[in-house]
Design a protein that fits this description.
Blueprint lengths: L2 H14 L9 E8 L2 E6 L7 E4 L5 E7 L4 E6 L10 E8 L1 E4 L7 E2 L16 E4 L22 H6 L9 E4 L5 H10 L6 E10 L1 H13 L6 E7 L4 H20 L3 E7 L1 H14 L13 H9 L13 E9 L8 H9 L2 E5 L1 H5 L12 E2 L8 H24 L7 H17 L9 H12 L11 H14 L2 H10 L4 H21 L1
Parallel strand pairs: 8-12, 10-14, 10-15, 11-12, 11-13, 13-14
Antiparallel strand pairs: 1-2, 1-6, 2-5, 3-4, 3-6, 4-5, 7-9, 15-16
Helix pairs in contact: 5-6, 7-8, 10-11, 10-12, 11-12, 12-14, 13-15, 14-15
Length: about 500
C-alpha cells in the first residue's frame, strides 16, 4: 500500500479525533444476602433511586447511611457478589405504563410474565408519588357495583373509596374481589389486580376465570409470586397504583385490588430487619403505618378541573383467628373508608359471602348508591339487624308473639337471598328487583328451603318476560311510582305462574 496514502489517512484521523469524557457514579458491593446489598461509594445517590448491578440486575437505594448504602435487589441477588461494581442511574424507581398493559400479566417492574410478547410503552410513572391534595379531590358520589347483593345493598363502595376486605384465610376474600372485577364489564372501569406473595397456580386459575368471563379485556394483573424475592412483594402494590394513576390522569375510573397487604407488610419487615432498621411492635419497623397510608391515600376521586378520574382501592388483609385488633389490621382499618368483614363461622355455616353485617361498614354510605338501591336497602339492613337480635331470644324456645315470629321468618329469607355463588355477580337492576320482592313481603309465603330455587326462577323470568322493567330501573336508577307499579305487576305475575307450576 502507498506510504503517502497511509500518512494522509492518519492525518485525517488525527484531525477528526475528539476526546469524549463520560462520568459515572460508581460504588462497590461490600456484602450481599437475602435480596439486600450493602454498598460503599455512591455519595450522591437519592433515596428510592434505581441502581444498576452487573448482569442487568437493578436495585433500589433504601438506607442512606454515613459510610454505606443499603439497597434491595430487584431480581436474582445470587448473581451479585462482593466487589461487584454498582452504578447509579439518576432515576427514581419507575415502571412503564400505557394502554398496552391492559389484558396482560406483568411483574412489579412492568415486564411481561404471561409469554404473550414484550409490552412496548413509551411513558414511565414513578412508583412512589404524593397523594392528590384536598383541592383536587371531589366527594365520592358514584357507585362501584360489585355485583354482590349483600355488599351493594348494605356496604356500598363508591368510585374513589378505599374499602378494606378483612377476614381469616379461606373465607372468600379474593372471591369478592374477583367477582367485583367480573362485574365491571361494560361499566367503563379499568381493573388492576395486584397479587402480593401469591402462589402462581392460584393466579393462573384467576386469569383463566377472568378470561372465560371476558374480564381480561379491561384488567391487568401485577404479580409478585410466592417464589419471587421479598423486594418484588414490597414494590408490587406501588407499581399497581402507579399504573392506576396513569389511567386516572386520563380521566378514567380504576379499580385496584391489593391481595393482600398482610404479605406486603411481612415483605417490608423482612427487608427492614436485614437492613438492620430498629424493630418495633410485632418486629415491624416504626414506619409500617406510613407504608400503607402513603399507598392507600393515592386512591381518590378527582374533580372535573383535574380530569374527573378516580382510583378505588380494595385492599385485603388476612387476620389470625378473627383478631381485628392486631397491629396491621388496626392500621389499615384506620386508613380505609370502611371494611367488609368476613367470618369463618358464617362461611362454615354455608352463608357465602360470609359477611358479618354487624362489623362491616361503609363510611361513604348511601352517597355511593343509586336511588333505587337506596330505597330497597334501607329496610334490608334494619330487617337483618332485628333478625340477628331476635334470633338470640328465639333460641331459648320461649313463646313468641306473631309480630316477632314474622320478623324472624323475614330474617331467615333475607339470609337466604343474600347468599350468592362465586363468579356469579348480579346486575344492579336484578338486585333491586329481588330485594324489592323480599323487603315488601312477596317471599314471606315461600318456604325457606325453596328460596334459592324461587330466586333463580324469578331472575330468569325477569330477564325474559319482564325485561322492560329491568331496563327502566337500569336507565332511571330510581324507583318511581310508575316503575314500582310495573315491578309489582311483574312479581305478582311470576308468583301466579310459580304457584300454578308447583
Amino acid at each position: 500500500m502507498d506510504k503517502n496514502y497511509i500518512i494522509e489517512q492518519l492525518k485525517k484521523q488525527i484531525e477528526n479525533f475528539e476526546i469524549t469524557t463520560q462520568t459515572e457514579k460508581v460504588g462497590t458491593v461490600l456484602e450481599v444476602g437475602d435480596g439486600v446489598a450493602k454498598i460503599s461509594g455512591l455519595t450522591d445517590v437519592m433515596a428510592s433511586e434505581m441502581l444498576e448491578f452487573p448482569n442487568g440486575i437493578y436495585g433500589v437505594a433504601l438506607n442512606l447511611e454515613e459510610g454505606q448504602i443499603g439497597a434491595m435487589i430487584l431480581g436474582a441477588f445470587e448473581k451479585i457478589k462482593e466487589g461487584d461494581q454498582v452504578k447509579s442511574t439518576g432515576k427514581i424507581l419507575s415502571i412503564p405504563v400505557g394502554e398496552n398493559m391492559i389484558g396482560r400479566v406483568i411483574n412489579p417492574l412492568g415486564q411481561q410474565i404471561d409469554g404473550k410478547g414484550e409490552i412496548i410503552c413509551d411513558k414511565f410513572y414513578p412508583i412512589e408519588k404524593i397523594a392528590p391534595g384536598v383541592i383536587t379531590r371531589q366527594s365520592v358520589n358514584q357507585p362501584v357495583q360489585t355485583g354482590i347483593k349483600a355488599i351493594d345493598a348494605m356496604i356500598p363502595v363508591g368510585r374513589g373509596q378505599r374499602e378494606l376486605i378483612i377476614g381469616d384465610r379461606q373465607t372468600g376474600k379474593t372471591a369478592i374481589a374477583i367477582d367485583a372485577i367480573i362485574n365491571q364489564k361494560g361499566q367503563d372501569m379499568i381493573c388492576i389486580y395486584v397479587a402480593i406473595g401469591q402462589k402462581e397456580s392460584k393466579i393462573a386459575r384467576i386469569v383463566a376465570e377472568l378470561e372465560k368471563k371476558g374480564a381480561m379485556e379491561y384488567t391487568t394483573i401485577v404479580l409478585a409470586g410466592a417464589s419471587d424475592p421479598a423486594a418484588f412483594s414490597f414494590v408490587a402494590p406501588y407499581s399497581g397504583c402507579a399504573l392506576g394513576e396513569y389511567f386516572m390522569d386520563k380521566g378514567k375510573d380504576v379499580l385496584v385490588i391489593y391481595d393482600d397487604l398482610s404479605k406486603h407488610a411481612w415483605a417490608y419487615r423482612q427487608i427492614s430487619l436485614i437492613l438492620k432498621r430498629p424493630p418495633g411492635r410485632e418486629a415491624y419497623p416504626g414506619d409500617v403505618f406510613y407504608l400503607h397510608s402513603r399507598l392507600l391515600e393515592r386512591s381518590a376521586k378527582l374533580n372535573k378541573d383535574f380530569g374527573g378520574g378516580s382510583i378505588t382501592a380494595l385492599p385485603i388483609i388476612e387476620t389470625q383467628a378473627g383478631d381485628v385488633s392486631a397491629y396491621i389490621p388496626t392500621n389499615v382499618i384506620s386508613i380505609t373508608d370502611g371494611q367488609i368483614y368476613l367470618e369463618s363461622d358464617l362461611f362454615y355455616k354455608g352463608i357465602r359471602p360470609a359477611l358479618n353485617v354487624g362489623l362491616s361498614v361503609s363510611r361513604v354510605g348511601s352517597a355511593a348508591q343509586t336511588k333505587a338501591m337506596k330505597k330497597v336497602a334501607g329496610k334490608l339492613r334494619l330487617d337483618l339487624a332485628q333478625f340477628r337480635e331476635l334470633e338470640a331470644f328465639a333460641q331459648f324456645g320461649s313463646d313468641l308473639d306473631e309480630n316477632t315470629r314474622r320478623q324472624i321468618e323475614r330474617g331467615r329469607r333475607t339470609v337466604e337471598i343474600l347468599k350468592q355463588d362465586q363468579y356469579a355477580p348480579m346486575l344492579m337492576e336484578n338486585q333491586v328487583a329481588i330485594l324489592y320482592a323480599l323487603t315488601n313481603g312477596f317471599l314471606d309465603d315461600v318456604a325457606v328451603e325453596k328460596i334459592k330455587a324461587w330466586e333463580a326462577d324469578f331472575q330468569r323470568y325477569m330477564d325474559s318476560s319482564a325485561k322492560e322493567v329491568l331496563t327502566l330501573i337500569a336507565q332511571m336508577k330510581e324507583l318511581t311510582e310508575d316503575v314500582v307499579a310495573k315491578l309489582e305487576k311483574a312479581i305478582k305475575e311470576f308468583k301466579d305462574i310459580y304457584q300454578n307450576g308447583n
